[in-house]
Amino acid sequence: MSQQVRGVVAPGKNEAVRVETIVIPDPGAGEAVVKIQACGVCHTDLHYKQGGISDDYPFLLGHEASGVVESVGAGVTDVAPGDFVILNWRAVCGNCRACLRGRPWYCFNTHNATQKMTLTDGTELSPALGIGAFAEKTLVAAGQCTKVDPSVAPAVAGLLGCGVMAGIGAAINTGNVGRGDTVAVIGCGGVGDAAIVGSRLAGAAKIIAVDIDDRKLTTAKTMGATHTVNSRTTDVIEAVRELTGGFGADVVIEAVGRPETYNQAFYARDLAGTVVLVGVPTPEMKIELPLLDVFGRGGSLKSSWYGDCLPSRDFPMLIDLHQQGRIDLAAFVTETIGLGDVEQAFARMHEGDVLRSVVML
Q: Can you give the residue ranges of the Enoyl reductase (ER) domain (predicted)?
């Protein structure tokens, strides 16, 4: 039997979000209903609200979440009612060419729940990133549920569902940061700070944080940055070269997603160095680079999807490292809020002093 819960809906482009009654169907084959305990407020949710993802309104927002499996549909064996899980938005299929080649983090056929959640009048909702977790409960594909240690705080666990995983993965999985490497991270919001944490975890010798906001640079230092550069007043390329013996960084992680910062990343890396784009650009953005420079500098230009993570591998590992005190995931939680505070949380994103607001249910 379907059930009704409260959830945060974006009704139209740039319209204020509102708490609505959501109808959750019983899980079908391969699906699960999850009782949400915590969900981070991510910039991607704001992009949905603003129409930057699609115009498939209304959206059920929220995707950076943890909770407890309430019920499962036919054929589900990997999770069971009572399991504490982190939700992910790239449930791998196991059968596409990437999965069959042993690269499931590049899965080309990730999937979501087949059934639709609705408003009480029957209007179908589009769940953000196939999750829709600013809600007391949500319906997902069972593959979107990853079991982790239930003793971890839900607010901490949920952040691995998107931003923190994207940043840590950009450093470790995509950038292959290694012991003794020099790393520059451009953009020190939640994802950029997570890339700093990942670089520190990987053993980087020097981690240079770049941002236009001194408050963010101060926070980046607490996350593990060894040096900071305010790009509003300092030439980024020259500063990074000066801090790396004139060579540039081995790995530069661009966590902004803008042409000008990508250009900085390209020229701030060492010869044969790596650029990782994890910041999400908008559709109209373009870059222009001299092809001779692309050829002559060598190295790698990569984009990082979700930190190239494999949730079944990476989520439990990072939770274990947090529990051991080797990384402090709790440092990303700036404030906890309720369902009715999401609109205000979006406004706070622009103030520069919030890594993550987390909705607690």
A: 12-359
What are the pLDDT digits (tens) for 147-190?
A: 999 999 999 999 999 999 999 999 999 999 999 999 999 999 99
Q: How confident is the model at residue 129 (pLDDT cuts 50, 70, 90)?
A: very high
Give the relative orientation of helices 190-202 and 214-223 as an angle to the nearest 10 degrees.
30
Say how far apart CA 139 and CA 115 lie, in whole Å. 8
Domain span at 178:
168-304
Residues 213, 117, single domain; the answer is no
* Shared domain check, 276 and 194: yes
What DSSP state is assigned to residue 82? T
> Per-residue pLDDT averaged across 25-47, rounded?
96
Q: N- to C-terminal Cα distance for the chain?
A: 23
String of DSSP letters for 173-190: IIS---TT-EEEEE--SH
Q: Which helix (H) or strand (E) holds 39?
A: strand 31-40
Residues sharing a CB contact under 8 Å with residue 217, sequence separation 6 or more, in sequence order = 188, 209, 211, 225, 228, 229, 230
Strand ranges in the chain using DSSP code E only, listed in sequence order? 3-10, 18-24, 31-40, 59-60, 64-72, 84-87, 118-119, 126-127, 137-141, 145-147, 182-186, 206-211, 227-230, 249-254, 269-277, 300-303, 335-337, 357-360
Contact 31, 115 (CB under 8 A): yes
What number of helices (H) and strands (E) belong to the chain?
A: 11, 18
- Per the structure block, which two tokens stand in for 229? 């550069």
Q: Which H helix or E strand runs over 195?
A: helix 190-202
- In whole angstroms, what is the distance from residue 204 CA to residue 253 CA? 13
The amino acid present at 21, given as its one-letter code, is: T
Tell me whether residue 322 is in a domain. Answer: no
Co-location of 183 and 117 in the same domain: no
Amino acid occupying residue 163: G
Same domain, 133 and 198: no
Q: Is the dihedral of CA 131, 135, 139, 143 positive or negative?
A: positive
- Does 156 lie in the same domain as 174? no
In eight-state DSSP terms, residue 93 is: -
- The CATH number covering residue 229 comes to 3.40.50.720
